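Notes from hallway chat w/ T.B., transcribed later so I don't forget. T.B. wanted the structure written out for a chain they're using in a teaching module, and asked if we could keep both sequence and structure tokens in one place. Agreed to drop them here.
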Amino acid sequence: LASRQFVEMPRTRIEGLLASFPKLMVPGQQHTTVETDTIRYLYQPIGEEMYAVLITSRQNNIVQDMDTLHLMARAVSDICDVGDQQDVVLHGFDVILAFDEIIAQGYRDNVDLAKLRTIMEMESHEEKIQEIIERNKEREAKQELKRHAKMFDQQ
């Protein structure tokens, strides 16, 4: 539903890795990792039919990767209703932004869920200025309409 890569890799390779993931999972298994010769899949259920999946190389530190996966899964469930795939798609942009805050240039940032919430809720100064400009334009347009209505009534 949402995917983000932090290493240069062809799209077909990513699609292939994601397509092979369900085939590698063993139903009812307690483990949340699956490994191939070169790739490690770490996953966590985030709904009845959805998983958060982190794909790394086998050389990565699995403990750090699990921590990253847990934070990413918590971020997804914090941003949207994880029981509903459409809600995840609807909030896909926010999910990707959260992933970018968690992982920067392929490395985990020192961020926790509280800090991530703060970052995601920040409003930009430019956005506030743009909203003020839009409100002023609307107010001026209403005033102009009133002036035209008065002129029309006087005629």
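Follow-up for T.B.: The mean pLDDT is 81. Might be a good example for the class.
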